[in-house]
Amino acid sequence: MLATLPPPLWPPVQARFAALGAPFVQEVAPSPLPLPRLLHFNAALGAELGLDAAWSRSAAALDRLAGNAAWPGYAPLASVYSGHQFGRWAGRLGDGRALLIAEIRNGHGQGMELQLKGAGPTPYSRGADGRAVLRSSIREYLCSEAMHALGVPTTRALTLVASPLPVIRESVETAAVVCRVAPSFVRFGHFEHYAQAGRVDALATLADHLIAAHHPELAGAPDRHARWLGEVIAGTARMIAYWQTLGFCHGVMNTDNFSILGLTLDYGPFGFMDAFRAHHVCNHSDHEGRYAYQAQPEIGQWNCARLLEACLPLLDGEPDGAREKAQALHAIYRETYNDTVMARWRAKLGLREARERDAALVNRLLALMQASRRDFTLGFRALAKIAVHDDAPAQEREHYADAGAFDRWTQDYRERLRAEGADDDARAARMNRVNPLYVLRNHLAQAAIDQAQSGDSAELTRLAAVLARPYDEQAGMQRYALPPAPGAPCVDVGCSS
Ligand code: AMP
Ligand code: MG
């Protein structure tokens, strides 16, 4: 039988971002990674890209994914961007440790970019080593796929390659390279960069590139830039509504970490909350709590304001006209956020209809959770067990310090359910598709990291498999649903990565 070999350039290369040339991209060769070892291949994503598991086991694949060989027909690229970090203008940043290694078309004909994170220094490394440590690479690899499985817009992760190469952070660690995948890695900071440099031509070129690739329906329209910015702002607001309703904290919401496609991007000191606290700060380097859980929606809006400021010249030749249009676009954020977040809270409570007092019902529950340090994920998952005609389940009641207040909330919740004629079983099934059982808690990630650092990636593989089906109760996997044991040492995450 004749073996059906893929053509040599499969999947097809489609170098649209690379075609922009200077000043947007520069060719940069990755640095060789010694003794690379493939720790994980994301077979589901690979299949979407036309890259199968057999390919992933080949020496040629490992070389490409470690940065030791180029993708046929593509020269690796770094791009330049700037940004606001922790509320202050940070000037030029750029891809200091990320290299675009291919642009390919997936099975649906959609252009996908492959980027290696940690493949060595670039002209934008600002004296740093261009590497990423195994610890933070595992966190990014696991979390981006966990978010995808939860239904949150995010960059994806195809492979995790480890190396014994020493990398110095607070202590000596070892290097790893993640291959990230997204339709585009353009950030708000790319636009801020060209605005600061007074390059209105570059702003327009970049916007038109993104419109052609991701919003072809807007191409050629005279008001395409304003309409496209409206899409960017709405996408950003929707992403943050997902974060809030999953108890996810990003940790470093700088404008250089904000994707123009509204994808969760740059997983560093992120965290899913265990016990609910509105003012929870997941990043121990964020001393002022700028990026606390409850601040995230406002920060998203602030970042959109920075993007609009940068894009003013695209909106109107007259400054007053441009400002007026920017204000109208800015208003899209609040409206989209409010609509999306309320729709998601309602879905989490199993409500199909919208009633005026729904927001108050959600806020009362969150206040009760906070007062009792109830686990956010498990607290919401448990609501599916409340029956319209029964008292609050005793098991859940026990988690609340003020059981009477929880009973009163439950009574109001049941009344609200009765008002729309809710059916317990159908509602529970719906709720279990929006209230996950498994999220990437810090202690779970840390257990996989500790084991992988001693050379065993079995826990990483197990955890990735559990997180790929976050809404399904999985036999024998109960411990992956649990918060850290009481008194267990807190896993500290900061900017060092
Ligand atoms: P981050 O805080 O990870 O979003 O990174 C902010 C900026 O610092 C970006 O320009 C990164 O490319 C750059 N950067 C972070 N870590 C490194 C590193 N180890 N080597 C080179 N550049 C880095
Ligand atoms: Mg970043």
Explain what you see.
This protein is an alpha+beta fold and 497 residues long. Helix content is 41%, strand content 13%. The chain is built from 17 helices and 12 strands. Strands 2, 6, 7, 8, 9 and 10 form a 6-stranded antiparallel beta sheet that branches. The protein has a two-stranded antiparallel sheet with strand order 1-3. Strands 4-5 form a two-stranded antiparallel sheet. The radius of gyration is 23 Å and the shape is globular. The relative contact order is 0.10. The model has no long low-confidence stretch (mean pLDDT 96). The chain binds adenosine monophosphate and magnesium ion.
Task: Please describe the topology of this protein.
Layout: E1 25-27, E2 37-41, H1 43-49, H2 53-56, H3 59-66, E3 77-79, E4 82-85, E5 88-92, E6 98-105, E7 111-117, E8 132-133, H4 134-150, E9 156-168, E10 172-182, H5 188-196, H6 200-214, H7 224-246, E11 248-249, E12 271-272, H8 296-310, H9 312-315, H10 319-349, H11 358-372, H12 376-382, H13 394-397, H14 403-419, H15 424-431, H16 442-453, H17 458-467
Antiparallel strand pairs: 1-3, 2-9, 4-5, 6-7, 7-10, 8-10, 9-10, 11-12
The site of magnesium ion has 3 residues, from loops.
Features:
globular, single chain, six-stranded antiparallel β-sheet, 41% helix, alpha+beta, 497 residues, 17 helices
